[in-house]
Design brief:
The structure is a single chain. By secondary structure, this protein is α/β, with parallel strands linked by helices. It contains 28 helices and 29 strands. A hairpin with a 6-residue loop joins β16 and β17.
Length: 813
């Protein structure tokens, strides 16, 4: 029997129980505490580390200051099935004494759990939700210790145990009886996030396609508060039980190592071939950019071997100070209680260590690594798929994939924005390097913009590059018929590129690649692969960025209806390439057009046929008549420009309907006259824009002048073509019973969208309503006004996020 004890709580784990129990104590402000300790048992498992932290923080925020709170984490060692039995172990863990609270990890408290702990049981053995689930229980341990014996909990079915709980129990008060995934303002005292695929902490991305939870803002606000306070569940002084097993306290013994030969660097790093080369190259190149080069090697289990290697490396290994270009190299072993704390180093190397740290302890261990570094952190990690150093009981490997590791590192790095980090993910010949945090070089990052033959894509990419303000190189891409293949088949490759007509893609490789459109996405990933993963990718648009986990940042419009993702930013409108200087120059160049024009000057932006809308002769004629009528009513003048999609006949029908003074530029493939589009944007007092073009709407809205959205009729083909995709989207977002996890048809529909095989129908009505909510657009026909409004800035937040991604500025959530 294992005993876990603190000053006010004792828990005994029965022999043979497939669980491990960790303890978090929240001590009263004044001792001794005035009331009994509130004992809370939480059922949890691998993947819920963030949920554990936020649940703990919610209790910490709501707790009474004059009581002790003991939070016991019941971790299943036998898989998800054993986790369902966690509640039934509580009487045995408490040795049949007193009372205890049990709850699942998928919830937060909005009131003091002591109120629930102190409720009268009224003769019942336990109180639980009226629905009969075990998400929150108030348990009389004395009454249930004999009923839920060790033998019965081990052998009885979960259904039988739950039925017995219903027979012995009463119902919780309505305020505490949280209906899963629902929240009542001012009434609910806890919120439960039951549906696995809507949990904000995204515990199992390989099993679910995550969608938005209606109450996720509550959870995210609590997590943000915990981040600001630097709160962690476990720490160096109070680690988890798993950490104590992996890394016993006390100074390491040297007796077993004295007879062994000095290890090689590859053995210490557990790396060979391309992995060892990646470590060497990354460390040496990064240290070259630092003015001071004191290096510490952070280790928890091989400190003595490292010391022996630094004192006497093997014959074919040069000393690390020479190999890496360091001025000094020391060992940082915080687990050695006999060693004095080392001063912060300029760079901290941590390889072949984190793999062995339990997931629940990784936040504070990574925090310790980052706090020890002045300028740089270098990590070596073996992600799941090759070997995983930390393994669960019974030989089950813990799936800690590369994206999972990157998320943990980025969370720790966000609290140390002055530190650059780089991680070598060892996988033999497929070794990859990722980096983040502060930009380590003193020069601006090298930026490539991938340009294709579609002006809208190029406008977005160059628009973001111009907004960033760094020098950039445009790489023009032309594509072969192979580019029509799905991106999942192309992977990270140039298979779809016509190399003879495209710009050469050669080293030195860039720090940042900006691209838009589906066809450029595989090329961007190929560039990152050639740079060992160090290039950061920003993909714009819904078609290229539907698989957000393959990029560092994806920017998609809200009307794309793609599911949320930590690497996805959603904007109301696309990014554009319009800036005040370009408009000023164009306005001056065409000053003769508007010198004597009557005001208000109404600029009409005529789009044309698109996947959703049509501009037939009748619609074009009606547009001209309506705009002409408006100009007559306000005694203004008209400036209009058509587009390629309007066609010659549509442009002619529009122009014929105009009788008021008007200057119309009719788009021509030959480009016989210079397009005054930018000048029109600069001279406008108000805009009338057809609703088919998101780029024209975004550009007009950015200028702070009223934009009136003119409706066009929808194409019949659009209504037919969206039926199948809308059905898939509806099935993917079905809520059977309100809390059901994705499964069967629902799962495969969601996964087909996630993989990009089915793309949700773009509905530009969402764009129109979004711009109207922003206060920068109105429906055509609303009262006409030329009063300036707040300009719509589509790229402002994106620029901040990209700067943080490359290492300039703070991370914007």
């Amino acid at each position: 029997m294992t005993q876990l004890q603190s000053s006010s709580s004792v828990v005994r784990v029965p022999s043979g129980a497939p669980i491990r129990v960790d303890l978090l104590m929240l001590e009263a402000d004044s001792q001794p505490a005035r009331s009994p300790t509130v004992r809370i048992f939480v059922g949890t498992q691998m993947g819920h580390v963030r949920a554990e932290r936020v649940l703990s923080w919610s209790i910490r925020q709501q707790r009474s200051s004059d009581r002790n709170y003991a939070i016991h984490w019941i971790r299943s060692l036998g898989g998800p099935d054993e986790l369902e039995r966690a509640a039934f172990w509580v009487p045995q863990l408490c040795s049949g004494r007193g009372r205890a609270l049990y709850c699942t990890v998928d919830q937060v408290y909005l009131s003091d759990p002591a109120e629930l702990f102190d409720l009268p049981l009224n003769g019942h053995a336990l109180l639980g939700p009226a629905s009969g689930d075990s998400s929150a229980l108030l348990i009389d341990c004395a009454k249930l210790a004999s009923v839920w014996s060790v033998e019965r909990v081990l052998t009885a079915s979960h259904h039988d145990l739950e039925q017995q709980a219903r027979d012995l129990g009463g119902s919780l008060p309505a305020a505490w009886d949280a209906v899963a995934d629902h929240y009542s303002v001012g009434r609910s005292r806890r919120v439960r996030y039951a549906a696995l695929h809507t949990q904000p902490w995204r515990p199992f991305p390989d099993r679910c396609v995550y969608q938005r939870h209606p109450n996720e803002d509550i959870w995210k606000k609590l997590e943000s508060e915990a981040n600001s306070a630097g709160f962690e569940v476990f720490s160096r002084s109070a680690p988890s039980r798993g950490f104590e097993v992996c890394f016993p306290c006390g100074p390491p013994s040297n007796l077993a190592l004295k007879a062994k030969p000095v290890p090689t660097l590859s053995e210490l790093l557990d790396a060979a071939g391309s992995e060892l080369v990646a470590h060497d190259v990354c460390i040496r190149q990064s240290l070259a950019h630092l003015s001071n080069r004191r290096v510490s090697v952070y280790t928890l289990h091989r400190a003595d071997e490292w010391r022996r290697y630094l004192a006497e490396p093997v014959a074919n290994d040069p000393k690390l100070t020479a190999r890496w270009g360091a001025s000094d190299t020391r060992i940082l072993d915080p687990n050695d209680s006999a060693a004095s704390p080392a001063a912060r180093a300029d760079a901290v190397i941590c390889a072949n260590t984190l793999d062995f740290v339990p997931s629940e302890d990784l936040p504070w261990v990574l925090g310790e690594v980052f706090r020890s570094a002045e300028s740089m952190v270098h990590l070596g990690i073996r992600p799941a798929g090759r070997s995983s150093g930390f393994r669960a009981r019974r030989g089950r490997p813990v799936r800690r994939t590369q994206p999972w590791w990157i998320a943990q590192i980025e969370t720790a790095a966000s609290r140390h924005p002055s530190v650059h980090w780089q991680a070598v993910f060892g996988a033999g010949a497929a070794t990859e390097v990722r980096c983040g945090g502060r930009h380590i070089r003193k020069t601006a990052p090298a930026v490539w913009v991938l340009s294709d033959d579609r002006p809208g894509n190029t406008s977005q990419s160059t628009g973001l590059a111009n907004a960033l303000g760094w020098p950039y190189t445009v790489k023009t891409l032309r594509f072969s018929p192979a580019a029509r293949l799905h991106n999942r088949l192309l992977g990270a490759s140039r298979v779809g590129v016509d190399r003879r007509r495209s710009s050469a893609l050669l080293p030195p490789w860039p720090d940042l690649v900006i691209a838009a459109g589906r066809r450029s996405a595989p090329v961007a990933q190929w560039i990152r692969l050639r740079n060992f993963g160090q290039t950061r990718l920003v993909q714009l648009g819904r078609k290229g960025g539907d698989a957000a986990d393959q990029f560092d940042l994806v920017v998609t419009p809200s009307y794309g209806r793609l599911d949320p993702h930590p690497r996805r930013m959603v904007t109301s409108a696309p990014i554009h390439n319009i800036n005040p200087e370009r408009i000023r120059r164009a306005t001056n160049r065409f000053s003769d057009l508007h010198a004597n024009a009557k005001r208000p000057r109404i600029v009409v932006l005529v789009g044309g046929w698109s996947g959703q809308y049509q501009l037939d002769l009748r619609s074009a004629r009606k547009l001209g008549e309506d705009v002409d009528r408006l100009a007559n009513e306000v005694d203004g003048s008209i400036f209009a420009t058509t587009s390629r999609r309007a066609g010659d006949r549509g442009s002619e029908a529009f122009c014929t309907a105009l009788s008021s003074p008007a200057h119309v530029y009719r788009w021509s493939a030959a480009g016989a006259e210079e397009n005054p589009y930018l000048a029109f944007l600069g001279l406008a007092d108000a805009f009338v824009a057809t609703g088919d073009s998101e780029s024209m709407l975004s550009e007009a809205a950015s200028l702070g002048r009223p934009v009136y959205i003119y409706p066009l009729p929808e194409r019949a083909s659009y209504r037919w073509m969206r039926i199948g995709r809308d059905w898939v989207y509806a099935r993917a977002h079905a809520r059977r019973g309100g809390v059901a996890t994705q499964r069967g048809l629902e799962y495969w529909c969601a996964r087909s969208i996630d993989w990009g095989f089915v793309r949700p129908t773009r509905d530009l009505r969402d764009l129109h309503e979004g711009l109207i909510r922003e206060g920068v657009a109105r429906h055509f026909g609303d009262s006409f006004d030329t009063k300036h409004c707040k300009p719509f800035n589509a790229e402002g937040r994106v620029v901040e996020r990209v700067c943080a991604l490359v290492g300039f500025g703070a991370i914007v959530k």
